[in-house]
């Protein structure tokens, strides 16, 4: 947390690196903005700073119509941290309050409602209900501007219990009604008609903002190499996959083309997302999972500042400044892959996952013909299945059954809101799960930016091929990697990309 003068200097600089990290409220206008807003710099005595947009709205300020704070990328701070507040913010951002209520969120975090509220207010200035209200207004505006859904359908999808509540919430947040917002966005030059969905019969077309640069080609290559037929596919610059969501299923298509047209006054760029959902109320969860999959809330500038001084990693970071950590839409999927990769090559793991999808994957009714049409198998389905049907036996079969059984019995959580240290400890207790497999799961399933396992044979081989002094053994590599914290996951990813490493 910065002091007032530091916040003010950051705001006055219009530095895009601070976008989404805090918000600026002006008392004379009643408006709050992003620190990159092009409006005239207000006087210090007229300024208040908030760490999140919900706190500014709770204090009575409305969103700026020029810089549109709801379009800012999420603060990367909450993804870096793994404490109670960060986990709660990730849960609420995914729509958990609408699904299970504040009491359910508190139970999932193993704390009381009172303690959760107290911690959130102390850290970010507002409690869980205010955070949920802010999320609803952001989702609603996204749908109003990106689709042709009826406004009553927008209210339902965003999580409002009534149209009246929807209208009141939008007026409080943006100073105008949903109808006025739609009329205004229809006249905007940067909202082409082709980006509007033709109602419920077609996909929702949304824009997912991120902090540039973004290595879309590198992300596509990673996804293409691991794509499971029937569940995922890549075509050109597009990636498609099925989604298992809280109220049903769906499909997502992500266009990873870096579009110069999306670059505006605030330096924004976006990934285009086309969603087909069985239940519109799943739109929040679907968007959150797609952002996690592509690591769109990462801060490349902060990662680069930390890693560029390293004599070996620095050159790799400068060569691929927008490299993102491939995530997931469901934590069990990358965890299963990581366990299998201990015993087989990448191609063999892909073949095993394909057989699993054929035998245990559920069909997706909303899928288009010829597109991904099956969900990746659930933990319960694999726990009940015979591993021999997938060509597994011995230690690999035992490891898969142990992982699937633990997740199905809810003894192990692999979602983004899970306690990272506790999850890693439970993973290490499972038969057939090595330390480096547990760290890979933390990287790709939990989104831990500082997961690192010097025992990982691919990381060790890559370090040696680059001539890193610490690559001689695990102890030396661990010592050398201290300088990479808290971004050791990204350092490992750069290492693996830098050299063609053959699996042992």
Task: Report on the architecture of this protein.
There is one protein chain. Mean pLDDT is 87; it is low at 187-200, 260-267 and 500-504. With 504 residues, this protein is an alpha+beta fold. The chain contains 23 helices and 9 strands. α4 (84-93) packs antiparallel against α5 (96-108), α7 (128-146) packs across α9 and α15 (332-340) packs antiparallel against α18. The strands form 2 sheets. The chain has a 5-stranded antiparallel beta sheet with strand order 5-9-8-7-6. Strands 3-1-2-4 form a 4-stranded mixed beta sheet. It has helices at residues 4-13, 53-58, 77-80, 84-93, 96-108, 113-124, 128-146, 151-158, 163-174, 178-186, 216-226, 283-294, 300-307, 313-319, 332-340, 346-360, 379-384, 394-408, 420-429, 435-444, 457-466, 474-481, 488-498, and strands at residues 23-26, 31-33, 47-50, 62-63, 204-210, 232-235, 238-245, 248-255, 269-277.
Protein topology:
Layout: H1 4-13, E1 23-26, E2 31-33, E3 47-50, H2 53-58, E4 62-63, H3 77-80, H4 84-93, H5 96-108, H6 113-124, H7 128-146, H8 151-158, H9 163-174, H10 178-186, E5 204-210, H11 216-226, E6 232-235, E7 238-245, E8 248-255, E9 269-277, H12 283-294, H13 300-307, H14 313-319, H15 332-340, H16 346-360, H17 379-384, H18 394-408, H19 420-429, H20 435-444, H21 457-466, H22 474-481, H23 488-498
Parallel strand pairs: 2-4
Antiparallel strand pairs: 1-2, 1-3, 5-9, 6-7, 7-8, 8-9
Helical residues, percent:
40-55%
Strand order of the largest sheet: 5-9-8-7-6
Spatial separation of the terminal alpha carbons:
45 Å
Secondary structure category? alpha+beta
Task: Tell me the fraction of residues in β-strands, as a range.
Answer: 5-15%
Major sheet attributes: 5 strands, antiparallel
* Radius of gyration over C-alpha positions, nearest whole angstrom: 23 Å
Low-confidence stretches: 187-200, 260-267, 500-504
Task: Please state the average pLDDT score.
Answer: 87
How many beta-strand runs? Answer: 9
């Amino acid at each position: 947390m910065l002091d007032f003068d530091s916040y003010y200097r950051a705001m006055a600089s219009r530095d895009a690196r601070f976008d989404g990290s805090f918000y600026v409220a002006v008392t004379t206008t009643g408006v709050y903005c992003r620190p990159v807003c092009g409006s005239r710099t207000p006087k210090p005595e007229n300024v208040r700073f908030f760490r999140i947009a919900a706190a500014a709205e709770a204090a009575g300020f409305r969103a700026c119509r020029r810089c549109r704070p709801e379009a800012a990328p999420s603060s990367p701070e909450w993804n870096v941290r793994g404490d109670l507040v960060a986990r709660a913010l990730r849960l609420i951002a995914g729509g958990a309050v609408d699904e299970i209520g504040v009491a359910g969120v508190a139970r999932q975090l193993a704390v009381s409602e009172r303690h959760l509220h107290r911690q959130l207010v102390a850290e970010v200035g507002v409690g869980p209900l205010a955070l949920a209200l802010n999320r609803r207004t952001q989702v609603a505006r996204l749908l109003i501007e990106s689709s042709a859904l009826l406004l009553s359908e927008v209210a339902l999808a965003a999580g409002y219990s009534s149209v009246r509540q929807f209208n009141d919430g939008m007026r409080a947040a943006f100073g105008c009604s949903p109808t006025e917002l739609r009329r205004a966005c229809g006249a905007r030059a940067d909202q082409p008609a082709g980006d509007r969905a033709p109602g419920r019969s077609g996909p929702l077309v949304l824009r997912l903002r991120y902090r540039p640069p973004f290595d879309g080609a590198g992300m596509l290559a990673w996804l293409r190499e691991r794509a499971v037929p029937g569940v995922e596919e890549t075509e050109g610059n597009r990636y498609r996959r099925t989604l298992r969501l809280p109220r049903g299923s769906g499909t997502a298509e992500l266009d990873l083309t870096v579009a110069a047209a999306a670059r505006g006054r605030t330096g924004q760029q976006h990934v285009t997302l086309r969603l087909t959902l069985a239940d519109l109320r799943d739109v929040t969860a679907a968007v959150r999972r797609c952002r996690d999959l592509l690591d769109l809330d990462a801060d490349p500038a902060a990662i680069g500042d930390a890693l560029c001084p390293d004599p070996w990693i620095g050159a790799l970071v400068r060569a691929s400044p927008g490299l993102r950590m491939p995530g997931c839409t469901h934590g069990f999927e990358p965890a299963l892959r990581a366990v299998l990769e201990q015993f087989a090559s990448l191609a063999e793991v892909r073949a095993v996952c394909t057989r699993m999808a054929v035998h245990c994957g559920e069909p997706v009714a909303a899928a288009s013909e010829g597109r991904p049409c099956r969900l990746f198998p659930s933990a319960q389905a694999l726990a009940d299945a015979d591993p021999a049907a997938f060509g597994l036996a011995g230690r690999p079969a035992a490891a898969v059954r142990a992982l699937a059984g633990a997740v199905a019995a809810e003894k192990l959580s692999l979602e983004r809101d899970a306690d990272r240290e506790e999850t890693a400890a439970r993973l290490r207790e499972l038969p057939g799960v090595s330390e480096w497999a547990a760290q890979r799961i933390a990287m790709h399933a939990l989104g831990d930016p500082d997961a690192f396992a010097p025992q990982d044979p691919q990381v060790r081989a890559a370090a040696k091929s680059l001539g890193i002094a610490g690559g001689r053994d695990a102890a030396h590599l661990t010592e050398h990697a201290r300088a990479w914290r808290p971004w050791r996951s990204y350092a490992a990813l750069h290492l693996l990309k830098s050299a063609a490493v053959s699996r042992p």
